[in-house]
Design a protein that fits this description.
Helices cover 40% and strands 24% of the residues. It has 514 residues and is of the alpha+beta class. Helix 2 packs across helix 13 and helix 5 packs antiparallel against helix 7. The two termini are 36 Å apart. Bound molecules: glycyl-adenosine-5'-phosphate. Glycyl-adenosine-5'-phosphate binds next to strand 10, strand 13, strand 16 and helix 13.
Length: 514
């Protein structure tokens, strides 16, 4: 646990030191769970967004984009169920006065049991070496089976109590498991209460006529209320999807994991409209498609898993999370939800406007069913950034800090250095920059010895460093160094564009999707 916390602290401080993420309004001591993206962060975030948009909108001829407003008519949130049901179960510790999400306390307890399973598996893998059959071991080892049964029983009971709104049983579960407050160690808990997560605001100048609004807690509703406008103007036929990215706001209670859980964050969501009765098939397809998008970035298959929900949100008939191994353990990165016709039917009911589709083949009208894919851009940022940050021990015994971002997403693709600050080398380096900058983000650096400049760019996540030396003036060649392997090659300046493009081109990365 201490090692995990240490690793996570390193991620946060690296993000600050290298201009990726800062606390919001830091000079005023920051604002809890609100963050700003700095010069490198904004580029990484933009590249992730672009990578998602291309995979969803550009590569699927039956998906189109949308950019709906953050403010929506307040009835939207009554219809969607957010006013009545977008709640978290809260519990306070009477001694530390700290407030927690009751379900998270229980889930953290279960994560500890899962940690014990991982330890048993690692021990056995070491003992049995190459002959180790993990699947067999997990199924048959008495201790692991017991741990697993315990974890499943606890999660099932939590799911059932939450679904039945039986908050007294959630408290009972916390007491039975003897969960203590992480701050004070005390088990002196209040009752569990529901707390609505939406931020309210007002539209209009005068106090009497002002209208109560909410900041949207998800981008999805902007898609639902525009469903028919988009369908008609694009002449899309079912099945088809609408995708959008944008800010969402939630008054989160547990907001302590950097950009994992924020109060202002960005979502990338897609609603896929389908014929009722086909939802199972499309749900499975989208689970697979989204997993394949994640795997295309090469962060390691072992870092992802599906977690099918026991407790379903008020709108879903099936739901699964794609979980990622964050520095603090496996946690939700993306949700794939089978939302039935809940949202469109509710908007139809509350607005009095028909939101139906006329199916030519069936010769009838119906309210489409929906499969949703929903991922937090900031959470995806954290997944990539935390997995990319490495401390490597080199052959000469020294260590280097390197940010092995997938090169397609790296903020800067190449840094160009003159070996020395004279003899016409800076001029040639700047000429190279002036040529490359039309295609890639590139930067110039002439400060310090070349070795230190390499280290700086390794830590910055820059995939290539290009060094201009005296030979360059004679034969128009330079040295190009690869971040991950540290290998250096002598190449023609005229070939630089093609070499960089081959490595960072979005097309070749996206083509890795199945
Ligand atoms: N429209 C469905 C929806 O919003 P969700 O599971 O509440 O579903 C979807 O959120 C995704 O949005 C999550 O998987 C997560 O990546 C991201 N997300 C949710 N709350 C977040 C928060 N407070 N901070 C950062 N990302 C968040």
């Amino acid at each position: 646990m201490a090692r995990q916390e240490d690793d996570f602290k390193k991620v946060i401080s690296h993000a600050k030191e290298y201009g990726y993420v800062f606390k919001s309004s830091e000079i005023y001591d920051g604002l809890s769970a609100v963050y700003d993206y700095a010069q490198n962060g904004v580029e990484l975030k933009k590249n992730i967004r672009e990578y998602w948009w291309r995979a969803m909108v550009q590569l699927n001829d039956n998906i189109v984009g949308l950019d709906a407003s953050i403010f929506m008519h307040p009835t939207t949130w009554k219809a969607s169920g957010h006013v009545d049901a977008f709640n978290d179960p809260l519990i306070d510790n009477k001694d530390s006065k700290k407030r927690y999400r009751a379900d998270v306390l229980v889930e953290d307890y279960v994560a500890k049991i899962e940690g014990k399973i991982d330890k048993e598996v690692a021990k056995a893998a070491k003992r049995f070496g190459e002959d180790f059959d993990k699947e067999q071991f997990v199924k048959t080892n008495q201790r692991v089976v017991e741990y697993q049964e315990r974890a499943t029983t606890i999660l099932k009971r939590l799911g059932k109590s939450l679904e039945n709104e039986d908050l007294a049983d959630v408290k009972k579960l916390i007491e039975e498991l003897e969960i203590a407050c992480p701050m004070s160690g005390s088990k002196n808990w209040t009752d569990v209460k529901q707390f609505n997560l939406m931020f309210g605001t007002k539209l209009g100048a005068s106090a009497d006529s002002a209208m109560d609004l909410y900041l949207r807690p998800e981008t999805a509703q902007g898609i639902f209320v525009n469903f028919l406008n988009v369908q008609k103007s694009s002449r899309m036929k079912i099945p088809f999807g609408i995708a959008q990215t944008g800010k969402a706001f939630r008054n989160e209670i547990v907001a302590r994991q950097f950009i994992f859980r924020m109060r202002e964050f960005e979502q990338m969501e897609m609603q896929f409209f389908i014929k009722p009765g086909t939802q199972k098939e499309w749900y499975e397809q989208w689970k697979e498609k989204r997993m394949s998008w994640h795997l295309s970035l090469g962060l390691g298959e072992e870092n992802y898993r599906f977690h099918d929900h026991e407790k379903l949100a008020h709108y879903a008939d099936a739901a699964s999370d794609i979980e990622f191994r964050f520095p603090f353990g496996f946690k939700e990165l993306e949700g794939v939800h089978s939302r039935t016709d809940f949202d469109l039917s509710k908007h139809q009911e509350f607005s009095g406007k028909k939101l139906q589709y006329f199916d030519n083949e069936e010769n009838k009208n119906y309210v489409p069913y929906v499969i949703e894919t929903s991922i937090g851009l900031d959470r995806m940022f954290l997944a990539i950034f935390s997995k990319a940050l490495k401390e490597e021990v080199l052959e000469n015994g020294s260590t280097r800090t390197v940010l092995k971002l997938p090169s397609v997403l790296a903020p800067t693709k190449a840094a160009v250095f003159p070996l020395v600050k004279k003899d016409g080398l800076p001029e040639l380096a700047k000429e190279i920059i002036d040529d490359l900058k039309w295609d890639f983000n590139v930067l110039y650096d002439q400060k310090d010895a070349v070795g230190r400049r390499y280290r700086r760019q390794d830590a910055n996540g820059t995939p290539f460093c290009i060094t201009v030396d005296h030979q360059s003036l004679e034969d128009q060649t330079v040295t190009i160094r690869h971040r991950d392997t540290m290998e250096q090659q002598r190449v023609a300046i005229a070939d630089l564009k093609a070499i960089i493009k081959k490595e960072v081109d979005m097309k070749s990365w996206l083509m890795k999707m199945k």
